[in-house]
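seq as requested:
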Amino acid sequence: MSESGDCSRVALYPGTFDPITNGHIDIIGRAARLADRLVVGVAMNIGKAPLFPLEERVELVQAECDIVSAKIGTPIEVRPFDTLLMSFAQSIGACMVVRGLRAVTDFDYEFAMAGMNARLDSKVETVFLMASERHQFINSRFVKEIAVLGGDISSFVPRLTLERTLTRLQRG
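struct tokens:
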């Protein structure tokens, strides 16, 4: 951020991405069109008992972001983080945090979080992007549950994530 308070449009899209879904990729692509540079922050978030370790989640997200970046032309960087979201946003020079909304229940949580984040740093705006109609119901937790129970998740996740998820579940 410059002394005048301006910043290049660096956007941060945070999440656990366990696993990354087609809904996440849709939001990443749309957020990349709004920013000069997009940072996808992969949260450690041990409390959610991730299927994939942090390093593998970063690798999977980076593989998908490389494809999106090549199509759109916006640089996309994938970085792990284990700090307060606003501290991470400040450390990368973000002027906006992008959050995807699927339903009204998402809005209630995200609205409260945006208020707290604004109190922590009023210079970082929260931008909400509505999930595309075809992705509104996709949620990483449901994808994991379907996969664990032997269901077909191929329409919810990209190919590499599908392969890695199935391999991980076969290993048990």
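The longest strand covers residues 37-43.
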